[in-house]
Amino acid sequence: MPDPLARRADAIHQTLIVMEQDAEADDLFALGYLIPQVPLVMEMVEYDPENVVPEDFDDVFLEWLNNAFADDAMSQHDQDHIRQLWDQARRQSNAA
């Protein structure tokens, strides 16, 4: 059976990588922060593939991201920029 969370994570991860290839210099830090977070979330999350939908990954990732910001003492400006690129990656992954 296909794993909806893993498929969604892979799609977003690939979108972020493509975004990084075409990124402006101002976006490189934020994308460099986001890209490795996706596989980390998938390593840590516990779930039953039969009981999730792809969009559940977005919720799990956002919760993870908010905790990571707190742990990393991330500035509000950097948090906002990272969230903006996260939202862009989500939209692009949805359109693909």
Automatic annotation (TrEMBL):
Q: Which Pfam families match?
A: YfcL
InterPro entries, alphabetically?
A: UPF_YfcL (IPR014987)
Q: Which species? A: Aidingimonas halophila
- What protein does this entry describe? YfcL protein
